[in-house]
Structure formats: C-alpha cells, structure tokens
C-alpha cells in the first residue's frame, strides 16, 4: 500500500511539474500583444518609433527593444535573416523581394506615415531658403554662396540615399562634405558652426529628445526649391500631405517573423486609430487620418461670466 501511495504521489508531482513548465512556457510565448521582440529602426526616424513604442507597451503586456542602425545595415540584416522586424523610410526593392521569395519568405510591409529629409542651418543666419540646384552644384565640387559645407549623418543612411536619388549625384567624399554617425550629431554640429548645412530626418526636429531641445532651438529648417520649380516649399504637415515638398518619403514597418508575433501586433497598432493619432500629433503625416467625434447639441448653453 505504501508503495502504491508513493507511486501515486510521485506521478502527481511529475504531472504538476509538467503543468507548471507548460504554463511557464505559455507565459513567455510571444503573441501579437504579448511577449518580447526586437525592432531595428532607421536612425533618422527613431523619435516617432520610440513614441509609438511607449504607448504600445503601456497598452499591452509587451516589451519592444529598439535598435537603431543605418538603412543599409538594416537591409543587410533582413537579407541575412539576422533582422526580423524593421522600420524603414522605404519599401523593399524588387531584387530584395526576389531574394526573400527565393527563401520562401513573404515580408509583410505596412505603411504608417510620411516624413521628410530636411536641410537645416544655424539660427544665426537670416537665410531660411535653399535651392536644390545649389546643393547639387556644391556636391559637384563648385563653390556656392551661403554653403560652407554639407553635413550628413552616415554614409549608409537613408538621408544620403534619398538625396542621391533626388539629385542624381552620388554623395562624394570630398572636402567640405562631412558625415557623422547620428542625426543628433549633425544637429549639434550645425548649431555650433555657421554656414554649415545639415541633412537630417525631420522628426528629430519636430520631436527631439528632451536633452536635445536646446540644441534644436539653435537651428532653422529651410524651405526648399526643387529643380525646375519656382517656389520654395517648407516641409509642413500640409505640404508633405499634398506632395509639394521634394524630399518627402513614406515610412514602413517590415515584418519577416513568419508567424503571429509582436511584429504583426505592432504593425496593426501603427496603422490603427491610436498609432495614426500619434503620427498626426508628431507633425508627420498619417497614412489615414484618425476619425473625429463631433457632438451636436440641440441647444446652445451660454458660458457663465
């Protein structure tokens, strides 16, 4: 009898241990609104993604680790399977999509906002305008009045790639063209050096980290005249939405997880009502404008003095 009791007790203990292990595994399991995941973010658009992350984590039992890299580094990571979720200011190209298809991977690409690459200069200057043709001329090695130097964040960045595409000129490694590592470094350098023109993502200026606000306040965002155009256009929310600003770009989350994980959940959040409101409030342009609730009253109540 004692042997039978011991056997039963042992069996029950093993069962409890198994149930506990399964429960622990389920607690750690990643779903679309629960668990942990790593997101690689193009450094030039980090502020808006960080804002979205903060709200997402307060609403769900989720933890998103954000890692900033240049656009080229993130693309290479996606192609090498070391990056599963990325936020970038461009879609995947056809050759990149073919590379994924050859590995039987179907990336889920979700647009969620429109932002811009902007030119900035030291606030001590009264000049708030810049012509793309002058920038192109300077990139070709010519002397241009008002431009002592061009300052980029990173040779492999999305800002460099976009400016090269728009201008048709490969960013040269020449005197008076500088590159750092981050947008924050560019802004700081321009704020401290007259005559330098910085090239950065606009969200770093609309919603900078608190410790950078004083530095941002020493810079001015320039209105840009595109080649063969007569008007200078400021990168306002309205001009970005209407497609008037020549260096506007779309933002995407690219999910290569291959299962229903946080990549899918965060993408749904970005494109949903709450995520789009965050985009709108940031000064960028949402893919779809959030709805507004308007309360109609039958009578008008006068305010009391």
TrEMBL record:
InterPro entries linked: PBP_domain, Phosphate_ABC_transporter
UniProt keyword list: Signal
Signal peptide feature range: 1-21
PROSITE patterns in the record: PROKAR_LIPOPROTEIN
Pfam families documented for this protein: PBP_like_2
Domain PBP: 40-270
Protein name: Phosphate ABC transporter substrate-binding protein (PhoT family)
Origin species: Flavobacterium dankookense
């Amino acid at each position: 009898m004692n042997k039978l009791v011991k056997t039963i007790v042992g069996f029950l203990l093993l069962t409890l241990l198994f149930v506990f292990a399964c429960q622990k595994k389920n607690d750690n399991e990643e779903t679309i609104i629960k668990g942990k995941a790593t997101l690689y973010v193009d450094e030039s658009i980090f502020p808006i993604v960080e804002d979205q992350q903060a709200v997402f984590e307060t609403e769900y039992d989720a933890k998103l680790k954000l890692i900033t890299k240049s656009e080229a580094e993130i693309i290479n990571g996606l192609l090498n399977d070391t990056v599963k979720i990325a936020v970038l200011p461009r879609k995947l190209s056809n050759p990149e999509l073919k590379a994924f298809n050859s590995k039987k991977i179907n990336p889920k690409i979700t647009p969620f906002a429109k932002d811009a690459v902007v030119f900035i200069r030291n606030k001590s200057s009264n000049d708030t305008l810049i012509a793309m043709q002058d920038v192109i001329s300077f990139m070709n090695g010519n002397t241009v009045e008002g431009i002592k130097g061009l300052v980029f964040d990173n040779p492999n960045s999305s800002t460099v790639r976009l400016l090269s595409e728009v201008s048709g000129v490969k960013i040269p490694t020449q005197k008076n063209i500088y590159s750092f590592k981050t947008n924050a470094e560019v802004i700081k350098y321009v704020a401290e050096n007259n005559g330098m023109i910085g090239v950065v993502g606009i969200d770093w200026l609309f919603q900078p980290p608190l410790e950078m606000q004083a530095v941002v306040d020493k810079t001015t965002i320039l209105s840009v005249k595109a080649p063969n155009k007569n008007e200078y256009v400021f990168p306002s929310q309205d001009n970005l939405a209407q497609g008037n600003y020549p260096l506007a770009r779309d933002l995407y989350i690219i999910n290569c997880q291959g299962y229903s994980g946080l990549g899918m959940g965060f993408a749904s959040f970005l494109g949903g009502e709450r995520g789009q409101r965050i985009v709108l409030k940031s000064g960028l342009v949402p893919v779809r404008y959030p709805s507004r609730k308007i309360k109609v009253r039958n009578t008008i109540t006068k305010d009391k003095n």
